[in-house]
Specification:
- The protein is α+β, with helices and mostly antiparallel strands.
- The protein contains three helices and four strands, in the order αβαββαβ.
- The protein has a domain at 24-99: 2-Layer Sandwich (Alpha-Beta Plaits), CATH 3.30.70.
- Helix content is 37%, strand content 24%.
- 12% of the residues are buried.
Amino acid sequence: MMKIIQKTGLAFILMLSLSMAALTAPKIYALKVDGLACPFCAFGIEKRLGKIAGVSRLRTDIKAGRIILTMKDGAVLDPATAKRAVKQAGFSLRALEQIRPPAQAPAKAVAKKPSL
């Protein structure tokens, strides 16, 4: 009886830790910004956005006028804060959306050769 309780408890703890990891996964946002024209523009806006609490990574696509912003685990980007930072950098925020990180590719199955 004790082993059943231990196994059930371990399974519960495992499920709980996996669900907590999903809740605290870093959030990723795409910001559509008008006015990005050169690397100097990108530097200026990255400097402002980088000061927002919880930001861990920024990637700027100048041609698309898009910035991908990754938050630290558990941090959330406040839209008003993002809009203010973009405006302070001299640009206009046209859109902000949370995006999902790309799914990790599943492990490749290795086919066994039939033995002769």
